[in-house]
Amino acid sequence: MRVGLYPGTFDPITLGHIDIIRRASALVDKLVIGVAINRDKGPLFALEERVAMIEAECAHLSEQTQTEIVAHPFENLLINCARDVGAQIIVRGLRAVADFEYEFQMVGMNRALDDSIETVFLMAEARHQAIASKLVKEIARLDGDVSKFVTPRVNIALRERLG
User: Fold this and answer.
1) In angstroms, rounded to a whole number, what is the distance separating the alpha carbons of residues 158 and 50?
2) Catalytic (active-site) positions
């Protein structure tokens, strides 16, 4: 069984994330969405809320792609999380050159820690390349329309959280 790990904070999950999840599902039999517990970032949504959003948004993708998609919280090293879930590949989404520079360093470190786990980069579709959770939260916080960047369910959650 080919297992992939797509890690991130997903605070909140965006249409860009969902695009990468949909496309990564074609590459593996099981896709684990690693939901990072990063206390330093001070997420808007609690871990349980982020996991629930991922599960709700990915249920139909799992049915469409016939790929098992599961959310898995983690707080350890990414490479250890990959080992924990039995992943042979780590999936990373790229939006721009700046993403690549950071990811290039991460791949080097992860390969030094365990060279049996490959990293696969997927470019976000052009219409999703500008989407970043941080920017979505800022737009929503300032009462802007984020409906182009998130699903209706996530949009409602943002509005409820931010008042």
Assistant:
1) 12
2) 17, 41, 95, 133
Give dist(CA 5, CA 89) in Å, integer: 6
Provide the residue count of the chain.
163
Cβ neighbors of 95 (< 8 A, separation 6 or more) are 16, 123, 124, 128, 129, 130, 131, 132
Q: Whose CA is closest to 80, among 3, 10, 1, 5?
A: 5
Helices (H), the chain: 15-25, 47-65, 78-85, 97-113, 133-141, 152-162
pLDDT at 127 over 90: no
**7: closest CA among 60, 96, 80, 64?**
80
- What's the pLDDT at 14? 96
Q: What angle do CA 5, 6, 8 make, to 5 degrees?
A: 130
Burial of 78 (0-12, 13-18, 19+ CB in 10 A): buried
Please give the pLDDT value at position 12.
Answer: 97
Cα gap 65→109, rounded to integer Å: 32
Tell me how far apart the alpha carbons of residues 24 and 4 are, in angstroms, rounded to a whole number.
8
* CATH 3.40.50.620 at 3-162, yes or no: yes
